[in-house]
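In response to reviewer comment 3 from the previous cycle, which asked for concrete evidence that the modeling workflow produces usable outputs, we include below a single protein chain processed end to end. The sequence was submitted unchanged, and the resulting structure tokens are shown without manual editing.
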Amino acid sequence: MPTQRNSRLFAVRGRRIAALIAIVPLAFGAGLMSFVPAGPAAVTKAAPARAAAPHDGHYCDGCQPPLEYTGGPVMDTRSPEGVVVIPVFWSPPGTDQFPGGYVNGIDRYLADVAAASGQQDNVYSVLTEYNSTADGSTTPLKYHITAGSPIADTSLFPGNGCTPDSDAFAICITDQQLRDELARVIQANRLPMGLGHFYPVFLPPGVETMDRDKTTSASSFCGYHRLFGQEPDEVVYGNEPFEASNCDGGQSPNGSLALDGAISTLSHELAESVTDPNAESSAWLDHTDHEIGDICAEDYGTASGSVDPAHPFTTEYNQVINGDKYYTQTEFSNWSYAHYGMGYGCAQSERQATTDPARSPEDIAEVFSEVTPNTTDKNDAEAELRVTVYDRAGDPVSGDAVNFTAYVVSGDGACGDFSASGARTDDAGQVTTTYTGSSDPVTCALVAHEARGGHSGTSRIYQGKAADTAPQAVATFPSTLEPGGAARTFTTTFTNPSNEDIRGSQVEFDVYASDTSKVAVDHSDLHVSYSTQGADGPFTTLSLHGSTADGSAIYGIISPKNGLTAHANSHLAVYFRMSAGRTLPTNSTAPQLSLEAYLDQINPASGAGTTIADTYATDVRLVPPQPGYLTAWRYVGIALVVLFVTIGIVFLVRRSRSRHTADPH
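The workflow returned the following structure tokens.
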């Protein structure tokens, strides 16, 4: 019977993955590699993401970098002023106002970004890797930004265009209402339009916003960017709702999670607006329509320091711009990804992107998280989120601060609560928290973000009726293997009952020592082949690595170019054949091995990912193979039994007919 993976097996897998990230570069043209971690903030918000992308959220579902130019316009960075950013602070009198320092903090940040234009040491310098092509001429983007004069908009809010999600919000404004107000402000102030200007609209506390796809800032996003109007009078704008927390990476170098979160959201949206301002005519996207910021959402990289030695894990900064310190997410670098491979696509600056990473063994390699179970309902609302942090040597990292947030991926409602909003990793590099789901039928992403390396791990959980769309995994693992005997055949089946494809995924097959085993098995002792085309093959030899010695594992990855796809409302079946070497010791009563398989989804840019579905472990006994002559006599015996039974049936039938003939009555 399959059993839930215990904590030792969880740790084995994470340690093995962390070590791999440190030593194996991405093999371009060979597909995705095998680096996968699988997971008081009760209802939290998604990291900034473009709502036009197929998946919004903290991590990028099925991202497939690099970014490629698709022919649309980029913003105009070549004019004398470059891109002029004009923030609009919409806050009518008589409503909640922006907290002290918020508006000045945004203005200071934009002034710093503008003053540092052309430098190579902040995140905006990464934009210079990209360009546009028109009439056969290629024009590179420049890091050239001008801070425009901020606009204080005191116009009254319109009537509710949408219904606020809770009493925390006094009003809900739709994207169309925001557009209408911005158009009025531009006309009233005779402000310029076109691809040389960006208008982020900031809203005060108590205001919820709804995007055009009906998702809201209360549960699904921190911000977005869009465009309306026609060339040359198009308006590129951003929606920047006020978020008290949970859009900030857990750091506040400027003394306010709300301010630092807003700055990170602004950074994300400004970078995406410059490289891809028009969703209807896109410019720079990956193969799954994700933008430069989407791919690296929730990745901040290693902090440069802390502004408060008394609180080093909550006041970190990773950007020094014009002398001021900020904590913003990284952006995707085609150059770094192409040269340094898996896990090196997200950069804090162009200088970092083009510098060979030292790959120190003490660098944080990965956050490995998993939630068990991955569904909740009113009768069983709790799930355990276990997180382990590893360095590049594969060793657990103790004392690292990990904070937890959750946001709605799909559905109408809210996520639940964590038993703790954060914790420090223990000597095993682990933290555990209990997640209690809400009664709402939504799919939630549970995000664990660690401070030391700026990395995150994300797990999905399906609440209530949303469990109907939760991916599932089953396997027909054998209960026995015969060393030196015939190969055993089994199947792993991953079911995707949702209406969306699960792209960029891979299947991982693992072999562990069972809890009672004292036998160390090397990967060379096993032979495994697989087929994704049916039970009759063709079968391909699965490359195995590792050993079950010292609590480790044997593993193999099935990951073709661009990954596997578990299609919507369908099954992904993988057929296996497995045999064991004749030198392995046998034990007919106690299991020596445990088999387990996972469907994982990977972000190759950051190395982050999540376990989508897990078969859990099945114990296997290594039993003595029967000699050939015994096998032959077995079939002879079966044949004789069948023969005698047939003769007996014929005899009884004839006897019955004979009696019937002799007795006509």
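Residues 418 and 435 are 5 Å apart (CA to CA). We consider this sufficient to address the reviewer's concern, and the full set will be provided in the supplementary archive.
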